[in-house]
Write a structure and sequence with these properties.
homodimer, 35% helix, Carbamate kinase, alpha/beta, 20 strands, 11 helices
């Protein structure tokens, strides 16, 4: 019999009715003779409500204490699930982060798991108990409560699956699985049966919000098979697994997009050593993450330098660069918030050439101008004007033959 | 400088405004150079809401899991208090029951504290931190979360004060202190400056809901001075302390009453060995606590036997006794829910005679019939008809000279 870790997100445990459905699904898997560890998020909206409550006190709640407050969310759902399972006649025990000995560093609000002592869970499984673990939370080495940041329950689940050497980690969510692109935007988007960890990492970081990126990193590192599936349907979702030989037959697995970035250009920057440092050091010091950077050398020792930042940091970054431009003698600072990034992802690119050329041609055929380009081993991203986003996604989806053949 | 444990009840932390008032009071005491440990209840009504939520799933929620759920209530208030204190510039750290190492037995829902390892709290106090401990909760020796039952935060506070050898344990509540009787019922009721542990025990068990009885037992056992006072006023409340010589000048300290009991009488019970056991064993097995028992021997080897039970257990107890009466050959089972118990309490009774006679005379003068009598070293209780309760309390209050002289 298998050992299965199941994780249910906030919408799957949003109320007592939903929790009962989760309990029935868990009971089914347990009843078939499997060992089951269930990882739960807080009820949908609860974490945000708690943050809001704390922010009514102060804009910057003490981080250690905020984690104590937030941890109540998952504590509530695991106890309610166990009460439900017990009332149905199934033996169930809840464990909070510290009881499950999910040990993290001390970065309150964004803690990273450093280890899991799984002996208590294993002992409960040996007694044929269903174990419900509060996701999103852990403890540091001194016993302080920590939380893992937005989407942290995914990471809890994958880390537990790794520590327990579970056969599979099932991530139950409100979508069916991982799609070739956003189905809301492209009707012919197709659900993938399998996707590699590396592709999923690129997907996650580019805006497909199915699975937290750190959870995928964990899964890849410890080789945990992850099954992303719907908590409202029985059918299978998408397996996120180690890259397999037959995966390479597909060159491109998915198209993603992001509208959350803005572009900043400094024109006529003196092309001298140390200039890039002067431009990017104050941005980094402001805690702003720069994504793409492009520099075009021009005549006369002057260059244009363009980079992208998250839209939310755009005003701060612009203000910083206006000071920088004066200091380094650049001509002007131009900004553009009306941009989008579309990306083509696939492990097949490793062995196939011509993907970039095919992408650029497809966009050119629609008169979509490419503002910036960046590439990795398994990804090509183009920055375009925001208004072309939907068109670009659909064209690329079709160009790389990702359509659902059933349609 | 003193070490002070303060406990605030649910109405004192009912919302962010009230929590800010608590923070200001705590900050004042801390700012004067004292060490402060704050014990909090859940927000008023929250524990009941959580119980109700669990009971929507099942009438008998799994007790271990219910405690996990209930423990979120105090977790919320301690974190909010610490966020508030930190936002005001005061260093504050919350500790949950398990972090404060409040170790209990494994009686979920009604756990008893078996020990407190106070080293972590002491270390935080040494660093001049304000420590906020979640009341009502602890952990068993295996790390399971337990709760102490209704009013358990009082016990948490007194136990912490004992473990820390605090100078005083202040219980902040929505009343000014301990009164000679219920001020809602008797306008001339007077706030007591001091009361002994023993008197307070009698008061608590007889219906003055100021302080949980187990908290008083703890305070007496470890000689913790307890100060019951209002969280909405600055003035001093009532000190609950070891019996002192000058206390004996007052013969009677207070009058209490309870309307929560019902009376059951078995008539013409064969007066044989083993009969009492046959009557009371099934009642005990049903988990019903019997308070007073009176037996009158009559002629012919037959006796009437009367006892009181909590009103909520009355239907069950009546049903049991009807079976019992048949088995043992008693004539009939009579019941009365329209009764009340009025009690006169005072350590001075130990050295003064005539209190009982004075009490009976006072009631007789008002034509109040005494149905049952029970006495302890420092208490005399009479069961009367319920409709005379208010009259009896006022008459006894006046008879023993307890009026507020300011009125």
């Amino acid at each position: 019999m298998a050992l299965i870790v199941q994780k249910y997100g906030g919408t799957s445990v949003a109320g007592l009715d939903q929790i009962r459905k989760v309990a029935e699904r868990v009971a089914g898997v347990y009843g078939a003779g499997n060992g089951v560890v269930v990882v739960l998020s807080a009820m949908a909206g609860v974490t945000d409500q708690l943050i809001q409550l704390a922010q009514e006190i102060t804009d910057h709640p003490h981080r250690r204490e905020l984690d104590v407050l937030l941890a109540t969310g998952e504590q509530t759902t695991v106890s309610l699930l166990c009460i439900t399972l017990e009332s149905m006649g199934y033996p169930a025990r809840s464990l909070l982060g510290h009881q499950a000995e999910i040990v993290t560093d001390r970065t309150f609000g964004q803690a990273r798991i450093v280890g899991i002592h799984a002996h208590r869970i294993k002992a409960l499984l040996d007694q044929r108990k269903i174990v419900a673990v509060a996701g999103f939370q852990g403890r540091d080495t001194k016993g302080n409560i920590t939380t893992l940041g937005r989407g942290g329950s995914d990471t809890s689940a994958v880390a537990l699956a790794a520590a327990l050497e579970a056969d599979v980690c099932e991530i139950y969510t409100d979508v069916d699985g991982v799609y070739t692109t956003d189905p809301n935007l492209c009707k012919s988007a197709r659900k993938l049966d399998r996707i590699s960890y590396d592709e999923m990492l690129e997907m996650a970081s580019l805006g497909a919000k199915v699975l937290q990126i750190r959870a995928v990193e964990f899964a890849k590192k410890f080789d945990v098979p992850v099954h992303v599936r719907s908590s409202f349907k029985e059918e299978e979702g998408t397996m996120v697994v180690e890259e397999e030989t037959d995966m390479e037959r597909v060159v491109v697995s998915g198209i993603t997009y992001s509208k959350n970035e803005a572009r900043i250009t400094l024109t006529k920057v003196p092309d001298q050593p140390g200039v890039a440092s002067k431009i990017f050091t104050p941005v980094a010091e402001a805690g702003i993450v720069v994504d793409m950077i492009i520099q075009n050398t021009r005549k006369g020792g002057l260059t244009d330098l363009t980079f992208t930042v998250p839209k939310s940091d755009y005003p701060t970054a612009m203000a910083i660069q206006k000071d920088v431009a004066e200091t380094i003698g650049a001509e002007q600072v131009l900004g553009d918030e009306q941009i989008a990034k579309v990306s083509v992802i696939g492990v097949g690119m490793r062995s196939h050439s011509g993907v970039a050329a095919k992408m650029f041609t497809a966009l050119a055929n629609e008169n979509i101008n490419i503002v910036m380009i960046s590439t990795s081993e398994i990804k090509i991203s183009c920055v375009i004007q925001e208004k072309y986003t939907e068109l670009a996604v659909r064209v690329l989806h079709s160009t790389f033959g990702l359509e659902d053949e059933k349609l």
